[in-house]
């Protein structure tokens, strides 16, 4: 069932008359669950799609939660096929997607969308914001998902269930720099490793056995090479003179604090963690919390993408070194629509100098980087038979 909340700032009299007429009908039949005429912004909660069509268009319209009948406990949906956390259904998310961490960043990118059709906007009770429209005539979505592995997992799995055809995802987020790249630089990593807290380690007592380490480092998951290349070129073109660094490796941590080597009052045993990461992972350059899981799920769905042909740069002088992180893959294309993923990471903090980006630079960098990511997405070719149908979509 559709479970929507309408909040009206204008034309209160029109709504009051409409809702009074509705209230005279059978509330059981119409499944109207709440009326509130006592406030300055009257509200009605309605769970009948046919009834929604009889109302004047609201100024804001959002799912207010999944408190209706859920038809499948394995993959929860409402009767009208809205997924549990993002609140989306088929036709509300496009094949080309930017994912960001916060609604303000999503809004800053959305100003670049075409004026027509008017962008669709949905904010779920769980805090996920989706804005879908067109950029230069091409359907795109901007999804604000919050932070960390679990939210990335919600996003990738639930969008995949709503989408027909290819799923092209670029993560645009902030990160900490581990090398001498200037704050305000943008990194396009070729791969990412996961850094996770070892729950078998005795953090209170200082270790259970000598063989247990407090943190674990995964094998790398890799970006889609073509997508990462298009992304780098778009960023490098639009952000000049801002430095854009391709071909390095990212680490995604399961904590902003302990697994990123930050000191708090907790006994995290992480004083040497960053040095350990740098000595263990070739070409490691950044720390954040989402990219690994995006790359990992893309590979789990589609198979690992091919690695870049060119070697990564090592150090700040641009000298190239061969990296042993990735092996050459030669995968044949199947009929299954792919998930292709890349990441653009804005260095907001230097973990070597402790410098932090200033607010004015954040605003500039987010706007320019967002437009560059949109441009990269529309340059990715998707065959017509691997696109979500326009019919019934919010971008028509």
Provide a descriptive summary of the structure in words.
It is a single chain. This protein folds into two domains: 1-60, no CATH class; 65-386, Rossmann fold, CATH 3.40.50. Strands 5, 6, 7, 8, 9, 10, 11, 12, 13, 14, 15, 16 and 17 form a 13-stranded mixed β-sheet that branches. It is built from nine helices and 17 strands. Helix 5 (149-162) runs parallel beside helix 8 (291-302) and helix 6 (225-239) crosses helix 9. The chain is globular, with a radius of gyration of 23 Å. The two termini are 23 Å apart. It has 396 residues and is α/β, with parallel strands linked by helices. It holds the Pfam family PNP_UDP_1.
Sum up the structure in keywords.
396 residues, alpha/beta, Rossmann fold, 2 domains, 4-stranded antiparallel beta sheet, 9 helices, 23% strand, globular, disordered N terminus, Nucleoside_phosphorylase_sf, Nucleoside phosphorylase domain-containing protein, Nucleoside_phosphorylase_d, uridine phosphorylase activity
Q: Which CATH first-tier class of the largest domain would you pick?
A: Alpha Beta
What is the residue-averaged pLDDT? 81
Q: How many strands?
A: 17
How does the major sheet shape up? 13 strands, mixed
- Radius of gyration, whole Å: 23 Å
Number of helices, counting only DSSP H or I runs of 4 residues or more = 9
Shape: globular
Q: What is the CATH topology classification name of the largest domain? A: Rossmann fold
The total tally of domains equals 2
Could you state the order of secondary-structure elements as H and E? EHHEEHEEHEEEHEEEEEHEEHEHEH
Beta-strand fraction estimate: 15-25%
